Amino acid sequence: MSSDSSDSDETASRNSAGVDTHEFFLPGAVATGAGVSALLIHGLTGTPYEMRYLGERLAARGVRVRGVKLAGHAGTPEELGAAGYDNWYESVVAGLEELRQFGEPNVVVGQSAGAVLAARLAADQGEAIAGLAMLAPAFFLPTSTTIMLRGMRGVLGSIVERIYLLNPGGSDIHDAAARSVHPTCRLMPLSAPMKLLDLSAVVKPMLARITQPALVMHARRDHTAPMRKNIDYVMRGLGSREKRAVELDESYHVITVDSEKERVAGEVIEFVERFRVAPQKRAAG
After folding, report:
1. Is the dihedral angle over the CA atoms 5, 11, 13, 14 positive or is it negative?
2. Rounded distance, CA 80 to CA 82, Å?
3. Could you tell me the pTM of the whole model?
4. Is 78 helix (H, G, I), strand (E, B) or coil?
5. What is the DSSP string of 28-45?
6. Shortest CA distance to 96 belongs to which of 127, 142, 54?
7. To the nearest whole number, what is the mean pLDDT of the chain?
8. What is the CA 243 to chain-centroid distance, rounded?
């Protein structure tokens, strides 16, 4: 289905509930004088909104937070279709560079495709990343979806860049109230999930290079990125000596805003705060 919607129509669909879809910076560490920063990365077709609650909870504990907006996201379907996974990654690297100026340990936290990008950042940046939290990592989509996407790419070739799919059901969120206000991408470029598969193929071999402590969280009822296949693969593949997996019972895919968002936030806060460094120790280092 080709897109015939206007830019204003898509913007209205994303902001109909009046939620803030902009990227954000929360200088929580300034209030406490203790040093730790967190880089938050949303998922494919998502917006920084899905990381904002977690970011606010972290900031309330004195963590400096940067919530990035991936290139092409939170705009029109055409903008999303024009951005490639390297463009998404450039947004992540730019966010890290903003945090590095504060000289604190940096923890990267990604949701879904954001978790795949977070893993790439941890592998590429090494000691610049103190810890890695992967929330509902989307290295694998449902088998039927993957087969369909690969088949359509093979048949349609470059035409897939001009095809958009209607998304009437909204985001994969169990909590009805959260789902009702969640910004949605009403028209999704068919090429977008194909680019996620390409990104995953690039990052999978990198997992063994990741040695930072890692937290992996996933929901058993995830319909977008099947938990068992993803969490087992990540836990086997990570080169980290210290890694922990947490499985959620009620949530679906967007666990940062779903039924167990409080538990997700609590686990991430506990993980991030382990890397906090006092100012005098930073100066000495």
Report:
1. positive
2. 5
3. 0.91
4. helix
5. HHHHH--B-EEEEE--TT
6. 127
7. 90
8. 19
Residue pair 103/118 in contact (Cβ under 8 Å)? The answer is no
3 state SS of 21: coil
Nearest to residue 171, comparing CAs of 84, 55, 11, 50? 50
Return the residue matching tokens 């899905």.
50
β-pairing verdict for 106-111 and 64-68: unpaired
Token pair of 277 as six digits: 């460094």
Q: Which amino acid is at 68?
A: V
Per-residue model confidence (pLDDT) at position 13: 42
3-state secondary structure of 133: strand
d(CA 246, CA 215): 8
| Token pair listed for 210 | 């990741």
Residue 52 tokens read as 């904002």
Which range (4-13, 37-46, 168-177, 199-208) has the least confidence? 4-13
Q: Name the pLDDT band for 165 (thresholds 50, 70, 90).
A: confident
